[in-house]
């Protein structure tokens, strides 16, 4: 049996149910390359469950998952992953391989940035369109710009996840992400993301020093939002309650918020 | 200080961080009317934190939040909510009222159906468009149909939450939801949701008897998916890995899956 258990966004982000399953498992693995978990203390978790947790590298999971699968054939194996499991394709792939080898699987959910970030900003999650990932500058893509454009046409909010190469300790930051979008605007020129676009940065969601900061792009682009992980939200039309929330929680100036309130 | 703490989708769905905060709180409230949490044992949670949890009714939160706000002015107060906090407008409203009265607030996130359901079905969360709620038949709305139509135009998946009136113990079930969409199809006739549309039902996500079942609408409409809560997913274009996942995890027949794979 292979149990995928979400670690959530920060230390102690695992649920009680997840901890229970981890305690019952005979072997525990973790992958920490699909995201960064601030304040995670694996040793403390190990002492709590009286078991070692073997941290796997990307290639152990994607190229050579045999060790995990072989153990899961005989034992109850826990596989810890950042956030809510199954957001990353690699976990769906591993679960499929397991089921196809006759191994029963189970998912223990946890917190995902996809609802945490909207919640922290006070934006309604049902008003988000498709989300996208902003890549590092050396892997340019026009997709994020196109996703934003379509969401804007429908008045919807857009969540941008920021690229990560955890094994090289590389994390795209919000100010770099804003520059990436401005460069796409320069290149494509469809007035989707300009210096006057209302944008919200959410940093270290769920941790004790999380930040939420919004404003016009020109007022955010030179700011330092501290340590990763960070995400970017470009709001669409705002309901008056969302507008109030952005003013209060993201410190967006009143006049900027007002420009985005839907009629 | 007012700390919003997510209870997640099922019993023991609170995170370790949430439990810690709850233990440190001097007073604890809960609202259980915005969703239904299978296997939730409030008494067990109370004995774990050695504190009573006062369950509030809808009007206590929406009309008369004074009790909560007054306590939070003097003490550290925990406010427990289903899922991930701030998905429901009512919590954003309460948080705003608190901050405007000078009360510091904090959010401790938990599992949300918005990532759990896609994960259980093996569908990629970034390929979801806007989500919508399907209402009870006595409050008809064309919005869900329109949301689905727009998502379909873009090849995106659609998550439908199902209406709930927890205080009257009324929960819309997936088979009723399918009928609602078929009636909208009958009325509007834009071939958005027909008897041949691929659909996936996720029931009791995260609980020990959760189910995931997909197929053509005509093969699902007469099925009984058991107890609430349930949600509906209408997939858009499928990546080959999503197709494999739907076959394996949602038991969708191979030929039905194949019709929806993107070229």
From TrEMBL, chains A, B:
Q: Which Pfam families match?
A: TP_methylase
Its catalytic activity? Answer: 2-[(3S)-amino-3-carboxypropyl]-L-histidyl-[translation elongation factor 2] + 3 S-adenosyl-L-methionine = diphthine-[translation elongation factor 2] + 3 S-adenosyl-L-homocysteine + 3 H(+)
- Molecular function terms, GO-annotated: diphthine synthase activity
The reply to whether Nucleotidyltransferase figures as a keyword in the UniProt entry is no
Q: Where does S-adenosyl-L-methionine bind?
A: 9, 84, 87, 112-113, 162, 205, 230
What does the function comment of this entry state? S-adenosyl-L-methionine-dependent methyltransferase that catalyzes the trimethylation of the amino group of the modified target histidine residue in translation elongation factor 2 (EF-2), to form an intermediate called diphthine. The three successive methylation reactions represent the second step of diphthamide biosynthesis.
Protein name in UniProt:
Diphthine synthase
Q: Which organism is it from?
A: candidate division MSBL1 archaeon SCGC-AAA382F02
């Amino acid at each position: 049996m292979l149990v995928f258990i979400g670690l959530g966004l920060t230390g102690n982000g695992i649920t009680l149910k997840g901890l229970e399953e981890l305690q019952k498992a005979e072997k525990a693995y973790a992958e920490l390359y699909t995201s960064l978990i601030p304040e995670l203390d694996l040793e403390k978790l190990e002492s709590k469950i009286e078991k070692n947790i073997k941290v796997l590298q990307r290639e152990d999971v994607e190229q050579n998952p045999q060790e995990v699968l072989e153990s899961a054939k005989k034992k109850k194996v826990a596989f810890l992953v950042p956030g809510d499991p199954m957001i990353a394709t690699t976990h769906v792939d591993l679960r499929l391989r397991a089921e196809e080898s006759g191994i029963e699987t189970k998912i223990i959910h946890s917190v995902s940035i996809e609802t945490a970030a909207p919640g922290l900003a006070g934006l309604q999650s049902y008003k988000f369109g498709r989300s996208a990932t902003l890549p590092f500058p050396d892997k340019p893509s026009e997709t994020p710009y196109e996703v934003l454009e379509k969401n804007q046409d429908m008045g919807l909010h857009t969540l941008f996840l920021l690229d990560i190469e955890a094994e090289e300790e590389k994390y795209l930051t919000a100010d770099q992400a804003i520059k990436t979008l401005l460069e796409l605007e320069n290149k494509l020129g469809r007035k989707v993301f300009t210096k006057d676009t209302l944008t919200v940065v959410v940093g270290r969601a769920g941790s004790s020093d999380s930040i939420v900061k919004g404003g016009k792009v020109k007022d955010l682009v030179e700011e330092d939002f501290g340590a990763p992980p960070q995400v970017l939200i470009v709001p669409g039309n705002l309901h008056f309650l969302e507008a109030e929330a952005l003013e209060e929680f993201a410190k967006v100036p009143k006049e900027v918020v007002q420009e985005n309130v839907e009629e």
